[in-house]
Amino acid sequence: MAYCATSHTPHISPKSSSSPRNALIRSRNRLTVVPIRFPPKISSNVLKFDRIRPPIRASSAQLMEQNVGSRVPTIVDVDLGNRSYPIYIGSGLLDQPHLLQRHVHGKRVLVVTNTTVAPLYLDKVVSALTDGNSSVSVESVILPDGEKYKNMETLMKVFDKAIESRFDRRATFVALGGGVIGDMCGFAAAAFLRGVNFIQIPTTVMAQVDSSVGGKTGINHALGKNLIGAFYQPQCVLVDTDTLNTLPDREIASGIAEVVKYGLIRDVEFFEWQEKNMNALLARDPNALAYAIKRSCENKAEVVSLDEKESGLRATLNLGHTFGHAIEAGFGYGQWLHGEAVAAGTVMAVDMSHRLGWIDESIVKRVYNILQAANLPIAPPECMTVEMFKSYMAVDKKVADGLLRLILLKGPLGNCVFTGDYDRKALDETLHAFCKS
Ligand SMILES: NC(=O)c1ccc[n+]([C@@H]2O[C@H](COP(=O)([O-])OP(=O)(O)OC[C@H]3O[C@@H](n4cnc5c(N)ncnc54)[C@H](O)[C@@H]3O)[C@@H](O)[C@H]2O)c1
Ligand SMILES: [Zn+2]
């Protein structure tokens, strides 16, 4: 399994005549689109989730009702019995020390962050942890920045710091940064002394809408993404939306790939809202961002509370990720952002769903349109070959007894299945449509 040799920025338009989009359109007449009846037959290795609906509603009116100027956080609860925790969402939350301090149980805190985020927010977080509370002492470990450092060697730096500074079981670890820091700090907290408390302060859209919620923590292995890790829930998640002001545009778009995912797999009203408000999201309209974060967290919190350890439903949050993780590993971690790889992977999963006759072509078009509107790639990098996809997909965590299970769309928009019961030919056709060799 060789990494792609070249590095380039993602394509954001379909390849000309050989584009998968054209391939789809060309193949339209060859495909038999089977009318979908509901409820469908559910075979033993197919899990269908269209009947689990979130008790939430999206509307532009609601967007206008958001009071971004208010410093009262919106709270979304992740309901996991005695491991339940709040997600605080709002502007200026790092200036409200009580929100963090109530979740620090011992007297010593280790903030885990990186070389980019530390100069921007570390002082603010230290103040939030210590203002009016002189009994708490805060130390920090500043890791190198980037997906390529999400590995055992970097993780060791957290343990080195914690052990050299003689942190004990009453320690609280605080993850300050994007998904890479959150996943690594969470895993460090899960493993250090067999588990210490931790708090997530996500500072990217990706982390605020997805990675900081739900307790998946871990690191990469050279042979695959996130293969080493633990389920480990934080004490709280604090989303200060002001931190997004310093985030580069490309990172904003990357996070939006996960926002689109929630709409596609389970929340059609949210998808429709995104279709109308994508420009506002990209322009960092604070109301639009706050609404998208809240709605995403509500969706994720509901899925996680129904299936914390991913026995079925939670796997649907990985729409596009099996293809996407292959791109991340095959291209070399960090060449494409996670959300960019997920966007291209989502297009591939949607293409395959259409080849199987499980979704209407209008859905395929809407997916292309929304991802393009978000400036995200809609095809994998050209260096990815069919063989590379196959070898990386073979080590995906969703392989069970040698069978690759995928999240595919099925039925009207907002419905998906997690299944190993699909025609292998469709997967092959999708891979060949998107790869030159
Ligand atoms: N645990 C989960 O459930 C889950 C879910 C989705 C993604 N992930 C993981 O998350 C990672 C991707 O997360 P990401 O997209 O946040 O990437 P990231 O953590 O690499 O952050 C992106 C970049 O933005 C910088 N940054 C962070 N906050 C900033 C800010 N406020 N201002 C300026 N720069 C800032 C970072 O230093 C980095 O350079 C992947 O490793 C992925 O596997 C995990
Ligand atoms: Zn993801």
Automatic annotation (TrEMBL):
<feature type="region of interest" description="Disordered">
    <location>
        <begin position="1"/>
        <end position="22"/>
    </location>
</feature>
<dbReference type="GO" id="GO:0009423">
    <property type="term" value="P:chorismate biosynthetic process"/>
</dbReference>
<keyword id="KW-0479">Metal-binding</keyword>
<comment type="function">
    <text>Catalyzes the second step in the shikimate pathway.</text>
</comment>
<keyword id="KW-0057">Aromatic amino acid biosynthesis</keyword>
<dbReference type="InterPro" id="IPR016037">
    <property type="entry name" value="DHQ_synth_AroB"/>
</dbReference>
<comment type="similarity">
    <text>Belongs to the sugar phosphate cyclases superfamily. Dehydroquinate synthase family.</text>
</comment>
<dbReference type="Pfam" id="PF01761">
    <property type="entry name" value="DHQ_synthase"/>
</dbReference>
<keyword id="KW-0456">Lyase</keyword>
<feature type="compositionally biased region" description="Polar residues">
    <location>
        <begin position="1"/>
        <end position="21"/>
    </location>
</feature>
<comment type="pathway">
    <text>Metabolic intermediate biosynthesis; chorismate biosynthesis; chorismate from D-erythrose 4-phosphate and phosphoenolpyruvate: step 2/7.</text>
</comment>
<keyword id="KW-0028">Amino-acid biosynthesis</keyword>
<feature type="domain" description="3-dehydroquinate synthase N-terminal">
    <location>
        <begin position="141"/>
        <end position="253"/>
    </location>
</feature>
<protein>
    <recommendedName>
        <fullName>3-dehydroquinate synthase, chloroplastic</fullName>
        <ecNumber>4.2.3.4</ecNumber>
    </recommendedName>
</protein>
<keyword id="KW-0520">NAD</keyword>
<dbReference type="InterPro" id="IPR056179">
    <property type="entry name" value="DHQS_C"/>
</dbReference>
<dbReference type="GO" id="GO:0046872">
    <property type="term" value="F:metal ion binding"/>
</dbReference>
<dbReference type="InterPro" id="IPR030960">
    <property type="entry name" value="DHQS/DOIS_N"/>
</dbReference>
<feature type="domain" description="3-dehydroquinate synthase C-terminal">
    <location>
        <begin position="255"/>
        <end position="399"/>
    </location>
</feature>
<dbReference type="GO" id="GO:0009507">
    <property type="term" value="C:chloroplast"/>
</dbReference>
<dbReference type="GO" id="GO:0009073">
    <property type="term" value="P:aromatic amino acid family biosynthetic process"/>
</dbReference>
<dbReference type="GO" id="GO:0008652">
    <property type="term" value="P:amino acid biosynthetic process"/>
</dbReference>
<dbReference type="Pfam" id="PF24621">
    <property type="entry name" value="DHQS_C"/>
</dbReference>
<dbReference type="GO" id="GO:0003856">
    <property type="term" value="F:3-dehydroquinate synthase activity"/>
</dbReference>
<dbReference type="InterPro" id="IPR050071">
    <property type="entry name" value="Dehydroquinate_synthase"/>
</dbReference>
